[in-house]
Design goal:
Layout (H helix, E strand, L loop, with lengths): L3 E7 L4 E4 L5 E8 L2 E10 L3 H4 L14 E10 L5 E17 L7 E7 L20 E7 H16 L4 E2 L10 E6 L4 H8 L4 E6 L8 E6 L5 E9 L6 E8 L7 E5 L10 E5 L1 H6 L4 E5 L6 H15 L4 E7 L15 E6 L7 E15 L6 E8 L3
Parallel strand pairs: 9-12, 13-19, 15-17
Antiparallel strand pairs: 1-2, 1-5, 3-4, 3-20, 4-7, 5-6, 6-7, 8-10, 11-12, 14-18, 15-16, 18-21, 19-20, 20-21
Length: 374
């Protein structure tokens, strides 16, 4: 029995073809505050792919087709059930003819968070020329913006009706002709967003959720390499100053639009350990000091050295996504001294993971973590 079931669907999520056996090189990638992707390759001349649907377009077509991916998982009672792990639009497709006369189509599908890069932020009246919120909670602002784009620009694939939107802090903003993705990139300095796939046939592909911090700390999530109780077949660590800063100035705008708001976040301990590294972050649409302080503090944690990225390759069955960890969770990395001095129980946050599905059913997982400065 295949561990994944892949359905090619119309834009409303109604199944057109089961391509579980046709799709090869399947890969699932999830990262914080980024559209989740599902990629695969199929024969370009396969009737399930190239054949025409009743709307006159091929079964596989970009934008107006969607894909649902289900993973076979053991339940608490010991039974097995296909669980929906991805629902998104077919986006870029690439057709390749070759000398072997075996044309293929490479497909990338993205969850509906991607659509926000193609929609303007709108007011409740539908205007996108100028959008203002005054002392409104950030998570509720995001919910309203998604509802507004669904109302005035048509279904995006996202719904907020059953989503989680806890209070995360008041904001005052003034956006002029801003795309939702631009707005989201500003918000995600202060909150996390995630899309839970939904199995319907009503143009809804996912439920949008917002959190002050997505994920939990899992004390038993131990990522170990070359150490007792090892769970990893490999580990890779990159330390790169990049845009490192331990004195960060955040810049907004004034309530009148004329005076400039600023805030400064300084880590004296980090400066003493390294040296003073200065940086600036612009939040040009932010018009209240408290929100500017919140965004700058969050960004300062990301930029403070040591900026460290660790990619882990778990042993088969040692660590499973959705069972042992989720994106956003915090765990601990340990590596033996052979890894340039080693790593000792370093707290890390799981930034995302890649789940590769082989044609033989031997799934592989790669976990990407990030550790902020102390």
């Amino acid at each position: 029995m295949s561990t994944w079931r892949i359905l090619l669907c119309d834009k409303y999520g109604a199944a057109l073809q089961d391509i579980s056996k046709n799709a090869r090189g399947k890969q699932f990638v999830e990262q914080l505050n980024t559209p989740t992707s599902f990629t695969f390759e199929v024969d370009a001349d396969d009737p399930k792919i190239a054949g025409l649907h009743t709307d006159g377009a091929p079964y596989l077509d970009y934008i107006r087709r969607t894909v649902k991916a289900y993973r076979l998982e053991e339940q608490f009672d010991g039974s097995e059930l296909y669980v929906l792990r991805f629902a998104g639009h077919v986006w870029p497709t690439e057709d390749e003819g070759n000398e072997d006369d075996n044309p293929v189509t490479k497909v990338t599908c993205l969850d509906p968070l991607n659509i926000l890069a193609f929609r303007f932020a709108r007011t409740a009246a539908g205007s996108f020329m100028r959008v203002q919120f005054t002392n409104a909670d950030a998570a509720d602002v995001l919910r309203q913006l998604v509802n507004n784009t669904n109302q005035y620009a048509g279904p995006s694939g996202l719904t907020t009706s059953t989503g989680v939107f806890p209070a995360v802090g008041a904001v005052t903003v003034d956006w002029r002709l801003k795309l939702m993705s631009e707005v989201l990139s500003e918000f995600t300095s202060g909150l996390d967003v995630a899309v839970a796939p939904v199995d319907t046939t009503e143009s809804i592909l996912g439920v949008l959720n917002a959190y002050k911090t997505r994920g939990v700390t899992r004390d038993d999530l131990m990522l170990k390499w070359d150490a007792p109780g090892h769970t990893l077949s490999g580990v890779n660590r990159i330390m790169d100053p990049g845009d490192a800063a331990n004195l960060l100035i955040g810049v907004g705008t004034g309530n009148s639009g004329a005076d400039q708001l600023t805030t400064t976040v300084v880590s004296t301990d980090n400066i003493a350990a390294y040296m003073q590294l200065e940086g600036i972050e612009s939040f040009s649409d932010v018009k209240n000091q408290a929100y500017l302080d919140q965004l700058t503090t969050a960004k300062a944690l990301e930029r403070m050295p040591p900026q460290q990225s660790i990619t882990c390759a778990p042993w088969a069955d040692a660590l499973k996504p959705w069972t042992h960890f989720n994106t956003g969770d915090t765990g601990f990395v340990t590596a033996g001294v052979r890894l340039r001095g080693g790593i000792l129980n370093a707290p890390v946050r799981i930034y995302g993971f890649t789940y590769g599905v082989s044609d033989e059913g031997d799934d592989t997982v790669s976990i990407v973590t990030q550790k902020s400065g102390q």
